[in-house]
């Protein structure tokens, strides 16, 4: 990967994350609720210009885009990448006799396989 490609990827990630957080900067406000026991709680809400709190179509679309960009796309990329790595590691065969360096490589592949299993388990624990 060249320097310019790496720079472009980094700038794209920063630009996308800035655009994704821009609505929070523009439409966030705090609302303080006072209780009968003299207590109070201040909460931060996104108040969109199109509707009242909780009834905004823009808020619904924003949350779907936020879910796709911050969860579904990264998890899909990791699933494809780990599947590809797993297929390469599981599909490779040792040719000839097993020497000590080859046995070391096989053991390291087994460690990566177990890491992939742990990663899949970690991902699945958030889907429930």
From TrEMBL:
Record has Hydrolase as a keyword: no
Top-level taxonomic group: Eukaryota
Species, as recorded: Araneus ventricosus
TM segment ranges: 61-85
Domain G-protein coupled receptors family 1 profile: 1-85
Predominant subcellular localization, coarse grouping: membrane
Molecular functions per Gene Ontology: tachykinin receptor activity
Gene: TkR86C_6
Any one annotated GO CC term: plasma membrane
Protein's recorded name: Tachykinin-like peptides receptor 86C
Gene3D superfamilies for the chain: Rhodopsin 7-helix transmembrane proteins
Recorded family membership: Belongs to the G-protein coupled receptor 1 family.
Record flagged with keyword Membrane: yes
Annotated membrane topology: Multi-pass membrane protein
Alphabetical UniProt keywords: Cell membrane, G-protein coupled receptor, Membrane, Receptor, Transducer, Transmembrane, Transmembrane helix
Record localization: Cell membrane
